[in-house]
Amino acid sequence: MWISDKWRDFELLDCSRGERLERWGKQILVRPDPQVIWDTPRNNPLWRQPSARYHRSRSGGGAWDKGTLPESWPIRYGELTFRVRPMNFKHTGLFPEQAANWDYIMEKIRSAGRPISVLNLFGYTGAATVAAAKAGASVCHVDAAKGMVQWGKENAEASGVREMPIRWIVDDCAAFVAREQRRGRHYDALIMDPPSYGRGPGGEVWKLEENLWGFVELCSGVLSDDPLFVIINSYTTGLSPSTIGYIAEAVFGRRYGGHCESRELGLPVTESGLPLPCGASCRWER
Questions:
Q1: What is the reported pTM?
Q2: Which of 14, 64, 102, 273 has its CA 20 to 30 A from that of 3?
Q3: pLDDT score of 60 more than 90
């Protein structure tokens, strides 16, 4: 497991009975987590007095009880600064377990000894984009949601990389990659965080289990002749790290050789000292 244990502004204080108790800067949030199926004692008094709590609805979805929570606030991770804010469906705009990948991205780019171009697909609010730009790469950030791309620009501004060579693209990722391939454009590194389920602009249905293989094959067509790395993330329950690794090996290893490693991502839980699994990630490198 890759554990993101270098945080100062974020802390997973405890988790029990389907919820997580978290510190985001000075704000204490309680959010649901379906993987937290254990019923351990809730000894931390902050369980009873959080800054905000997300309540699930029996009819689907849910809502925040925000109290005095600010609309948004900054948190730092090393050299990086992000704006977080409560969103629909419990999210804050940042997945703190991905910090282990941000470290990897920055180290690989800085040690490459050459200019690196990165394509970040399903780029969300741009944390990986900001990390790559901070390390000196040129980045193309693609997401179908205009609001997420705007948020990414805010994170770039907060981290001091707004003037770096970042292309911000609002588009369907598969359609964009297909066009880039026709244009003959290539990238030295790929980062992708495809959703478990979604619908395209024409009503097309995306299911990760059915579409990931074809999408990864498509993306292999825009890798340069001297690629640095590929990262594939997944939050789909039941899709193991080994499954993602198999796809990466079959697509990228077959063409370039190299090495592939797949693990769960995790966050340390302060109360128990145990890591909470938070998804799967695969790293292929030349």
A1: 0.95
A2: 64
A3: no
